[in-house]
Design brief:
- The structure holds 2 protein chains of 2 kinds.
- Chain A is an alpha/beta fold.
- Chain A has 2 domains: 230 residues, P-loop containing nucleotide triphosphate hydrolases (Rossmann fold); 108 residues, Beta Barrel (OB fold (Dihydrolipoamide Acetyltransferase, E2P)).
- Chain A contains 9 helices and 19 strands.
- Chain A has a 6-stranded mixed sheet with strand order 6-7-8-3-9-10, with helices on both faces. A 5-stranded mixed sheet of chain A has the order 14-11-12-13-19. A 4-stranded antiparallel sheet of chain A has the order 2-1-4-5, with helices on one face.
- Chain A is globular and about 70 Å long.
- Chain A starts with 5 loop residues before the first strand and ends with a strand.
- By secondary structure, chain B is mainly alpha-helical.
- Helix content of chain B is 77%, strand content 1%.
- Chain B is built from 25 helices and 2 strands.
- In chain B, strands 1-2 form a two-stranded parallel ribbon.
- Chain B is globular, with a radius of gyration of 24 Å.
- Classes of the chains: A alpha/beta, B mainly alpha.
Amino acid sequence: MTKNFLEVENVTFVAGGNNKVNNVSFSIEKEGDVVCLLGPSGIGKTTILRTIAGLEKVKKGTIRLKNKIISSEKKHTEPELRNISLSFQDNSLFPHYTVEKNIYLGAEKKLNGKKKIDDKNLIKILDLEKILDKYPHQISSGEAQRASLARSILFQPDLLLLDEPLSNVDQSFKEEIQVQLKKLLKKLKITTIIVTHDSYEAFYLGNKCGIILDGQLKQFDEPYNVYHFPNSVEVVNFLNRGILIPAKVTGENSLENKDLGTIKGNFIKHYPKGSDVQLLLQPEDLEHDDKSNLKLEVVDRKFRGTSFIYTLRTLSKMLIPVFVHSHHIHQHEVDEKFGIKRPIYIEHIVCF
Amino acid sequence: MRKINFWYISSFLISFVVLIPIATVSFSFFEETSNYYQILKETFLIEYIFNSVSLLVGVLLLTFIFGTGSAYLVSFYNFPGSNFFKWALILSFAVPPYIYAYSLFAFFDNYGTAYSILKNLFGDGNYNKIIPKFDGMLGAILSLSFSLFAYVYILARASFLYQSQNLIDLGKNLGFSKSKSFINIILPSARPAIVAGLSLVAMETLAEFGAVDFFSINTLTTGIYNSWITFDDLAFANRLSFFLLLFIFALFILENISRKQARYHSNMSGGFKTKEKYNLSMGKGIAAFLFCFIIFFLSFIFPFGQMLYWTILYSENILNSETVDLIYNTLYLVFLSCLTLIILSFISNYGMRISKSKPLNILNTLSISGYAIPGVILAIAYITFIAWFDENIIKVYDFPSIKKIFFGSIIGLVIVYFIRFYSLACNGIKSGYEKINVSVDESAYLLGYSKAKTFMNIHIPYLRNSVLFVGILISLEIIRELPITLILRPFNFETLATTAYIYASEDLLEAAAVPSLFLILIASIFILISSRYILRD
């Protein structure tokens, strides 16, 4: 018997009769933890949430909540009996009730009893005070999403499932809500699974992150590790954080690439000397140096506020991204030469 | 979440029961018939088909002109009375074709109302020679057209309203005149809606019994009725029904295809903007007013006025015809049938919604084709089925006969009304349901609501407006319904419609005026209550 709060064990998730995600295993160790699931659209993230909520049945495997089986091939606890709340991505407010009635629906008994949540404060945090008297068709999709979020939290579930909870919220307001949401979930110790396609949101909110790709849970780890130590080429490509370049291992702490020369750093995994590998090169791994004799041609420059991302072409026609702080003293135009500091040093060397 | 539960089984059974008459007609096609079939095949069958097609072509042409023309004028132009005509034109629904037929005949008949008017105005004269006669095929075409054009009007108007303003602006930008815009842009965009309206008109026309019977035109529908009533040949009635059904199913498919395209047409990018209505110049404004007024006058004021005139002229008939009883009987049937239809349609829709079962959906789609089947066919198919069931199942097990319960009883009437109007109720509630996202149900489950509680606390309160609207539409249909009531009503039980028909068929048109007038009045009240839904901008 496991002691994890939620245990998903070898589950095959199915939607509309088709396998969406196969053989998934992950767990949430303790109450109050937040897990984020990342992946491209249509990959099956929502199906995972719907299955955990009991709206879909599992084809194979077992889901346990607080050590009780809620879904397996033989057993299926109906959604209304699970005490799991799901906040849908689309507007799922009851159209004939006001926002206020919607928010409190299902939560009345719990708020009358042992009140754990300051409902007024929650409404204030989510900026819902002005729309309480309105009906769902009179509010924006972002407001509907926040109202739906409030309803799910006020319900005080054992497990809160949020499907792209802030996808329709204005960018200016989004970060503020993320901060407040994180504080709130921590304070109330509400165990939560959040599905999102925004990696920064996932890295910020989650204690752990799962990457769903090609019908599989590719990696399930802490955000820092997912970012710095991706465990597969697919995860690298999905996070779109760099490129893979060919290199040869030349020592305990070094590699050699024919365009960039020697690269030093710490391997996260051992490779024998002389091995041919694919090295993950991320934009922040390279440093600009006008005096360097390693000069590459600029093919593109993107302004990203705090930084520029230069795309450089090597002699063997590889395209490499490089970050440069936007306060850097001068800028390089397309077709100009761009110096890279040598020797190149990478803190965590990730190879495949 | 897909499992066999109460909702699934109920939904399945409801759809199954509705399908029985269609199956009965299909099976009866292969049964032996009497000589009547041979006689008919050699003599009248061609005439039946020719008359049905002639009637259809004439009615479709006129309803297209009346419906599309008036919808175009009230949707795009401001002219004297345009806001009034917007809703007044749908009042024609209150006049069933058979009552229109009585009015038309009586007005233009020798020494009829037209004669009396001319005599009062100009003194004695041989006016019968100059008064045109609208009877026979022409009378039937006019009666049906004025009574049914509102189907085209409502759907065409809705389509015009939801046409993208961008399309119309584009026409202006390309230098199109208003008439060129209408022919090249507006009309083609509204085509699916207009075809859908015309398909409904076609189905009603083929199913019409009262008006064509009054004008003594032999069509397939009257042929079915006669083969059963006059020649007592149920099998042949079913065989004729089968032919008519094939024809109607072709129209049904056409209508469905058009409806799907209508969805596509109405989702033009550019979205819905309030249309700019053009102010017509004095001359054109008067012409538009006259066009709409003539249609309104002929479709509603004329039959209503004729019935009112007779009611006043022969006011003793108000007491003779036991009007209160007739109104009570009519409303009693309306109430019972509405209640049954709405409750069962609700259950059926909810069953389909939560089970997400494809076989159930297919069964339901087949069962809603019931509205395409003429009342005469349904009534006869119902009798055939009950007789077969009684003979082959009930008697075999020595149970007492069920014929008395299901023939000539209120139960029988309500069952056949249910089958006939199930599609109306089911589709009406379904369209309300389609506006509720499935995630709303799922949110309710996750908030601890059971399926029954979700149904009672979430769906029913939300759908109450749709239910009211559906209820009114069904009431309207049942008030006007004639052949089913005529065939299946209990002994000595009459409604406004059957009484009007019986008097008219006995050449007592003046006596038919009172029930006809009350029928129009009650139907008008229902139409006025529902007009805000029908004409929702």
